[in-house]
Write a structure and sequence with these properties.
heterodimer, A: about 325 residues, mainly alpha, flat, B: about 300 residues, about 70% helix
Chain lengths: ~325, ~300
Amino acid sequence: MMTQMVLRRIAIGFATLWVVSVIVFLATSILPGDVAQIILGQSATPETLAALRAELGMDQPGYIRYFSWLGNMVSGDLGISKAGGATISSLIGGRLGNTMMMAGIVALISIPISVALGLWAAMHPGTWLDRVVTFVTLSLISVPEFFIATVLVLILAVELHWLPSTAYMTGNETFLQLLKALAMPLITLVIVVSAQMIRMTRAGILNVMSSPYIEMAILKGVPRRRIILRHAFFNAIGPIVNVIALNLAYLVSGVVIVETIFAYPGLAKLMIDGVQTRDLPLVQACAMIFCGTYVVLILIADIASILSNPRLRQPK
Amino acid sequence: MTEINTTKEQEVLAKLDTFDELPDAPPKRRIKLTWVGKVSVAVVVFWLIIVVIGPYIAPFHEMDIEGDDGFLDAYSGEYGTFYLGTDYLGRDTFSRVLFGARNTIGISLLSTLLAYVMGITLGILAAVKGGWIDMIISRINDAILALPTIMLGLIVIAALGSSIPILIGTAAVIYATSVFRIARALGQDIMVQDFVEAAKARGEGIWWIIRAEVLPNAAMPLATDFGLRLVFVVLFISSLSFLGLGVQPPASDWGSMVRENLAGLTYGSYAAIWPALSIATFTIAVNLIVDDISAKSGGSLAKKMV
């Protein structure tokens, strides 16, 4: 039964990915603007336009273009950027690595901090420290990412001169220089993601704490610490893995803002530049990578919550 | 027989009239706010007033270049007082914050309202009709919900360019999806209640049931959720503006103001901080009100669905 549910969920995940590709293709292809027209500009004659359309395969009906685009994308051929004519794979290559590195470091730092703080807040509900944590995290998730980044720049770069205000990388820095360049975007993302994760971990544990077997443990006089660490925590692992996967998915939108502010050479910055120059093939490729990652992470989150549910794990 | 019955009924009814409420009616809901909630209400009301009167009380026009130079300090103007200094072009920051409230909060409010109209209409329709209508709307909805909102926004703007109607429409469609889910869940819950069964048995039409039974019962949870959704929309719109893809210059918008004046931070200008603070005060206050209300009503649906 559980395998069935997981398989079903994976099938839905693939279906979602397919729908995503349709949305991305439709949104960027069925447009008033015509790519050939944009490339050639005002001076285009009808003949050159028709020639370029044929070259780009735009004289074919929409569904054929969709399937050839999808086929190319699946086989790793992401197409050619309109600006400069470089292949998109070559543009994306290094950028993707940079973004993955950033996301990876953020996850490594924020997951232990958030789980510990969330647990700690759940152990002392209602105390003033718990209230401070709740208030601060609520405030942090209510403000835009760029607000947190701006305040950090003001404090750490302008007032204290500790860190540079951009994450410009030349590629041949020493490790310390690299660390210093990355510090600001990393701190911003860690704050954004941790605030959300702390809240969800706390809520997850408190939710488990209201179940009957915990009441039983309380009634038999087990100390609160022990209840949380021995009873509640293991049952909350499923929900917490769920929380972590969800928040890594939220990183997708955080990264867009943070890379722009700090001029970090990542994939999101590339995509924003693509949107500004209306380089649609580039936007399509980046959007597919981001949305694909997001869908996969949500899939992991859902599978984690299926696996962690004992009622599904041991069918009657 | 029938006569006795009617007199008995009248007696019971007469007795019932002596109660203010029916004995088993739920107690009247009264929202009591903590002091944090009250302060937050004051902040939100303040900004809503600024949305309406901001442009009339601003000392300068949002597009007037008043200072000789960018990033002037506060109180250094020759032509008048710049309470908060000037921005990178020498425009009065204080006036632009006042004007920007109309764009940032106004556009967000409009989008959220539109999202609610779409989401509730489709959600209740799906819940009431069920069957294949429900199937189709829900599947499309799930597909849109499965994507990060900022990506959807970027894709649409890459395709259509950015203008205020496109911004409002995009945000409305994106956030209608979550409203739809809540409205549908609420509608399905209400449709199986005894009082709806009773109304159906009485022979009431579908529209009467929606208007008189479903909507009033769904109103409170939806109202709480409105606050949360509004915060998300404000963050969405101002993030797009911050990326340079939302409200276009020279119109003032809090998100784009932060972007324009970010470079000024290094010269010690706070021109980027004021609009950022304005967004923060508004969104935090709305969230604190919602938090206060849902803490009282004990884990509301709205909270669970975030």
